[in-house]
Amino acid sequence: MADDSGQVLLLKRKVLVGGRWIAEVRLPKGPLQSGEPDAGTALHEARRLTGFLDLEVLADLGRARAEYQHRGVRYRRQEHFFLLRLTSKRRRPADAPLDDDAKTYELGIATDFDEAVARLSFPSEQEAALRAKAWWPTSG
């Protein structure tokens, strides 16, 4: 998710891995909603996790395979990425309730796609940010 200046919105949270807390930097994303197109889910999840209300889909960035281990279980899944543009700074009210997942994240800003790639924790998300950089009209 980027704004017109090319800044990239990231999500940060602390997670417990192997008995120690580490910082994880992610792109906004979430599970597909039943019956909703993938692009609709991307908009819904970005709004839910960031609080920004006015977003538009600019590009389908394709799919990537992600593999990770959590609590001794190996997970494999397909992730579908979209480039979203922030069309205004309007956000949900500060007193609006958040679900437990959204409460774990804080917002972060990367000044451009290169910084986002360097800060993101997972290869599939780094690759999506590189594809977004190639698509973004102001990228050099």
Question: TL;DR of this structure?
Answer:
This protein has helices spanning 38-50, 100-103, 113-119, 123-135, and strands at residues 8-17, 20-26, 55-70, 73-86, 106-110. 26% of the residues lie in helices and 37% in strands.
Q: What is the second-level CATH architecture? A: Alpha-Beta Complex
Strand order of the largest sheet: 2-1-5
- Helix count equals 4
Strand residues, percent: 35-45%
Approximate helicity band: 25-40%
Shape: globular
User: What's the number of structural domains?
Assistant: 1
Biggest β-sheet: count, sense, barrel? 3 strands, antiparallel
Classify the secondary structure makeup into a structural class: alpha+beta
- Strand-and-helix sequence, N→C? EEHEEHEHH
Q: Give the C-level CATH assignment.
A: Alpha Beta
Do you know the CATH topology? Nucleoside Triphosphate Pyrophosphohydrolase
Mean pLDDT: 89
* N/C terminus separation: 18 Å
Which stretches of 5+ consecutive residues score pLDDT under 50? none
Tell me the CATH superfamily. Nucleoside Triphosphate Pyrophosphohydrolase
Radius of gyration: 15 Å
What is the number of E strands?
Answer: 5
